Amino acid sequence: MAIALLIALLCAWLLLGRERSPIQTDLLAMLPAxxxxxxAEVAAQRLAHANGDRVMLLVANADDDHAKAxxxxxxxxxxKDGVFASVTAELPPFDLQQxxxxxxxxxxxxxxxADRQTLEQPGYDPQQALAQRxxxxxxxxxxxxxxxDPFGWLQHWLEQQPWSRSPLLPEDNLLTAxxxxxxxxxxxxxxxxxxxxxxxxxxALSALNQAETAIEHDHPGTHMLRTxxxxxxxxxxxxxxxxxxxxxxxxxxxxxxxxxxxxRSPWPLLLAFLSTAIGIVAATTVSVLVFGQIYxxxxxxxxxxxxxxxxxxIQYLTARANAGEAxxxxxxxxxVRPALLLALGTSLLGYALLGLVPFPALRQMACFAMVxxxxxCLSVFFLLPALLPRPAKPLSAASVRLALFLQRAITSFVSGxxxxxxxxxxxxxxxxxxxxxxxxDDVHLLISPPAQLVAQEKQIRxxxxxxxxxxxxxxxxxxxxxxxxxxxxxxxxxxxxxxAQHLQGWLGLAGxxxxxxxxxxxxxxxxxxxxQPDRMRQWLHxxxxxxxxxxxxxxxxxxxxxxxxxxxKTAVATPFRYLWMGDxxxxxxxxxxxxxxxxSGDLLKQAAKDLPGxxxxxxxxxxxxxxxxxxxxxxxxxxxxxxxxxxxxxxxYGWRSMPRVLAPPVLGIGFTLAAxxxxxxxxxxxxxxALMLVLGVGANYAVFLREGxxxxxxxPGAMYASVLLSAITALLSFGLLAWSSMxxxxxxxxxxxLGIGFTALLVPASVPARNPSx
Length: 774
Description:
Keywords: Cell membrane, Membrane, Transmembrane, Transmembrane helix
Main location: membrane
InterPro entries: MMPL_dom, Mycobact_MmpL
Protein name: Membrane protein
Membrane topology: Multi-pass membrane protein
Helix content: 55-70%
Largest sheet: 6 strands, antiparallel
Number of helices: 29
C-alpha cells in the first residue's frame, strides 16, 4: 500500500506539480518519422511549427470602414491581454518604396523570365521598350520610379514577388483584401507560450471569444474568421477530455453496478477499482517518465483500459465468492495465480507486438497497457489477500443461472453434428464479409478536426492566398548558390504547371534571390545595351529623360549581385526566413519550396523527377504509406502471436486440447473481420492492432474458464459468470471507444467491441462438455 501511495504522489506531481503540463495535444507529435533523409524530417517539423504559436484572424464586414474599425478595436483589445506576446493589426506608417530601394543596387541582375526571353530575341528594340515603359499605366502598388528603371526590368521583377501577388494590400495601415461580399482585414497575434499548453489555450480562447463578442456588438454585421494550431489543439484536447469523461464515467458506473449485482457487496467493488486505479496510476507515471509526455490518444485509451485491468481482481473475487466458508486468502491466490500469470503473459505478448510499431502514440499506448496490466496483477497478488481475509457471499444466483444456461446451450450446440453444421454455416456466412474487406491507410483517418475549423482555414487561405504547406520540396546542394540553381530548375517546371492551371503558384527563395549564376547571365544579356554608353544616353535622351537621371542610371551599371545571406538580414525577408534551412558547410545547404494549390501528389513528384538535390516531402502521404506497410505486416504479426501462444497452451493443456482452448479467440477474430466487411468498414492499422488485443483478451477468457472450472464443480456456471462479467466490463470500456471523437480510437473500439463479444460467446466451447446432470 505504501508503494501505491508513493506512485500516486509521483503521478500527481508529474501531472499537476510542474510548470508545464506533460499532456501532449500536438497531434503531429504522435506521428512517426517517415523520411529517410533526416533533414527532410527536420524540415517537416520546422514547417509544421513555423507558425505554431501564431493566430491568424480575419475581420469581415460588408462595409469597408466598419471592417477596418473592428480590426483596430480587436487589435487593441487583444494587445492588452498578457497571453499574447504580440498583436499586429495596424501597421506602422509604411512607404512602399521601402520595398524597392534595397533592390536598386542590384537592378541589372534581376530579370523576369519574360524579359530574359525578350532580350534574347535578335530583334530586341530598346527604344520600343522605353516607349512601352513610359506609356504604362500608373502603378498603385510596389513600383519603381521611372528614372531609376526606365526599361521596367526591375518593375516587372518586383511584380512577381510574393508581396506584390498577395491579395492583402496595405490600406489605411491595415492589411486588407476585398472580395465580392465585402472587406477582410488581417489581424495576427503571437502567443506568449505554446499553443499546446492547456493554460495558454484556455486564456487565449477566452480573450478571443470576449473580443469577438465585443466587436460584433460594436460593429453590427462583423464576423471573425480564425485559424491556427491553437484552435486545433484546443479542440483535440476538448474532444479527448470528453471521451475520457464519457468512457471513464459510463464504464465506471456500469462496472460498479455489475459488480454490486454479482458480488452483492460494495467492498469487492471498491477493491476491484483500487486494483485498477493502481494499474492506471502506475501506467501514467511510467509513461510520463519514459516518454516525457503523454498523448491524448493514450489518455483516452487509458480510460478504456479499466475494463481489462479489472479482470484480474474479478477472478480473485470470484474465487473468494465460490469458496464459501472454506475461504483462505493464500489458498485463493494459489488457485488463481496460474490463470492470472498465463492471462497476463498473453496480454503482454499482444501489447509488446503493438509496441514494435515505429509509431510514437502506439508505442506509448503499449507501454501504458503493459505497465498497467503488470501493476494491476501485482496488486491482486500482494494487496487483495491482505484486504480479503473473510469469506464472502456467493455470486448472485441469477447471474450464475443465466451463465449456466448460456454455457450449456453453446456447448451442446457446438458439439457433435450440430457443431459441424454450425461451423459450415458460419463459414459460408463469413466468406462474403471477408470478400468485401478493403483498406484505407490515409493518415487523416487518425484525426477528425472540426468541420467548422477546416472550413474557416480554407476560407482564410482562399482570401489571403497563403498556402497550406502540407507538401513541400526540400532542395539541397553543396552551397547556397547551388541550392538556388536547383530551385530555379524546379521552379521552371512549377511555372509550367501553373501555366497549365494545375498549380496556383509556389513560394521559394530563388524567386526572390536568383542564384549568382542566374544574375551573371542576366547582366550578360544587358551588357550589349551598356557596351556603348553614348548610345544608351541617346536612347534615354530621346525618350525625354533628364541628363542628371541619365547619368545616374548609366553610372549604376553593372551594379552588385544580390547575395542570399545579406538579403536574409533585411526586413523584407522576415516572413520568408523559415524557407532557408541553413548552410553549415560540412553537410551543405538546403531550402524549402512550397507549392500552392491542390495539385495531386503524382504531379508534384513529376516536377521533381530527375532533378538532383530536389525531394518532394509529403508528411501526410509518408505516414499513410507507413501505415499501409505496417497494416500489411500486421496480419503476419497476428499469425506470429497465435503461433507463439500455441506451444504455451500445448504445454499447459496438452496438444489434443490446445485447439479447443485457442479456438474462441481465433474464431472471434475471423468473425470480427467478416462483420467489418459487411459493415463496409475499411481496415486500418488500428483495426489490426485491436485484433491483437482481441487475441490476448480472448485467450484470457479461455484460460480463466479452463483453469477455474475444476474449482466450481459444486456450482456449475459460476466460472462462466465471472468470464461474462470480465467480458462485459471490457465491452463497457473498450467498446465505448467505438463512439470516440477520434477516428483511430473508433476503429479500435469497434473492433474490440465485435471481437470481445464474439469471443465471450464462443468461450464455453473451450471446455469439454460435461454431463448435464452434474
